[in-house]
Amino acid sequence: MDEKIEEVFHDVLLLSDIKTKEEVIKKMSDYLLDKGYITDEYYLATIERETIFPTGLPTKPIGTAIPHSEAENVVKPAVILAVLNNTVKFSDMSNRENEIDVGIVFLMALKGENNQINYLRNIADFCKEEENVLKIYNSKCKKEAMVIFSEEILMQST
C-alpha cells in the first residue's frame, strides 16, 4: 500500500438513529468533507458506485460494508469507520439481490486503484474474523474501536 494504515485511518464515528445506507454514507462523507479529505462530488459518486457495485459483506455476527468512490473525488487519503447503533440495509457485494443488515461501515477515500484493492482486501480479511467484528461492534467509545481496528490491521500488514 502506498499509504500506511496509521497515516490514513482517521476516526471512528458512533452513529445512532441512522435508517438508510444513504444516511450513513452522507454522515461519513460530510465528516471527511469538513476535514478537507474529499470533494463535494464524493458523496453522490459513492452512492452511484454503491448502486452498481455494492459493498456489503455478510460478516458474522453483524454485516459490514466498505463504500468508496473513485480517486478523482479524493483530496487526501482517508479511511474512517462508523459503528451504528442499529443496522441498515446494504446490498451484498457478491449478489446485489441479497440485502445485508450492516452495523459497521468503513468509508474509504483513497487514490490509486491498487491502493483501494489492497485496503479492500485488508478490511475484508479483518472482517472475516467474527471476533474482530464483535469487538468493533461492541466497542463503547471511539478510542476503543480505533485501537482494536488499528492493532489488527497493523498486524496484518507486517
TrEMBL record:
Family matches, as PROSITE patterns: PTS_EIIA_TYPE_2
- Mind listing the UniProt keywords for this protein, alphabetically? Sugar transport, Transport
Q: Which organism is it from?
A: Alkalibaculum sporogenes
- Transmembrane ranges, per UniProt, are none
KW ATP-binding (keyword) present: no
In what residue span(s) does the PTS EIIA type-2 domain sit?
5-152
InterPro entries noted in UniProt: PTrfase/Anion_transptr (IPR016152), PTS_EIIA_type-2_dom (IPR002178), PTS_SugarTrans_NitroReg (IPR051541)
Q: Which Pfam families match?
A: PTS_EIIA_2
Matching SUPFAM superfamilies: Phoshotransferase/anion transport protein
- Keyword Transmembrane appears in the UniProt entry: no
Q: Could you identify this protein by its name?
A: PTS sugar transporter subunit IIA
